[in-house]
Design goal:
Elements: E1 4-9, H1 14-25, E2 30-37, H2 41-51, E3 54-57, H3 58-72, E4 77-80, H4 88-96, E5 100-103, H5 106-122, E6 127-129, H6 132-144, E7 149-156, H7 166-169, H8 174-177, H9 187-195, H10 197-209, E8 217-221, E9 227-233, E10 238-242, H11 248-256, H12 287-297, H13 301-317, H14 325-334, H15 345-369
Parallel strand pairs: 1-2, 1-4, 2-3, 4-5, 5-6, 7-8
Antiparallel strand pairs: 7-9, 9-10
Helix pairs in contact: 3-4, 4-5, 5-10, 5-13, 9-13, 10-12, 13-14, 13-15, 14-15
Amino acid sequence: MKMKKVLVLGCTGSIGSQTLDIVRNMRDSFEVCGLSVGKNENALNELCREFSCEGTCFARDGTEGLERLIDSCGADIAVNGIAGSAGLVPSVLVLKKGMDLALANKETVVMAWPVVKKIAAENNARIIPVDSEHSAIFNLINQAGKENLKSIIITASGGPFRTFDRTQLEKVTVDDALRHPTWKMGPKITVDSASLANKGLEVIEAVRLFDISPDNVKVAVHPQSLVHSLIQTRDGMVYAQISDPDMRHPIFGALVWPEIKENYLKPFDLFGKEMTFYPPRLDDFPMLSLAYECAKKGFSYTIAFNAANEVAVAAFIEKKISFLQIPRIVEETLQNDWTLHPSDLNLVMKADSDARKIAEKVKNRMEERK
């Protein structure tokens, strides 16, 4: 494999840091040619020195700085590990350049898939999923053949509140929600995992990435996080991808795709492992049901779901609302009309802005009633 030049967007976050770990351990295969951060200039400067590359800080340089970096760095592939809706525009800029995109940013697909898919096709750029679940599905479908696919089964750890009843859920704190049992992630995605909003976003993402009906996407709670997802083929057989819960596996897989390469990561050892599966408790974790509804309705409903959730999670982390008020804010926001077809990026951003304003009003009413 020839040396591959890698641009890392969100280089100080969980995905970005693990991408850099891969490069450090496989310098004969990968070279970092560009780095971006949101705000942490000191960390950016240190990493640019370490990898002898260009960098940009979004808080200082804005979209223009990111465009300059993408235009000048000469990357073969970009890893987008930016959290939340802030990752959408960077994805678009990468694809417009004709660069392959290793995508860990769910919001790119949830908010703007029709737009993003068109841009990728027009510029002959490939989108390779990095989320552990979608990476697993992507590889399993490639091996089984899309024509043989019947359904997708996305696994969920269940988060820290998997066994909590309604009374317990009413009392959980921010610190409780941030104690994920198997994955180490940023605060927003960790709260999303606790509420199953993250799994809802992944259902929407799977429907779009793999062009499948929401009725054929299932969720199975799997506390050990060893099976990263499964597919069922037309003959009823179920196939799984299994590895230790380490995001470096799907990141590496995206960096070398379509090849399969040896690496420095620990091979999976099957012996002594326990794997259990349960149906999700939709009544206690309504974010998943709300996501299914949005996946079926389409239009701007998925944009509103994501925007309202971001507003609600931020308020929860700031201790302004309770954990169970997160889905209430999202549900009330979704009761508005979201039938606008987001046919371009401006309409996507308008729907996102409108949903945030509505969610903020709902949140403020809840705060006043406390």
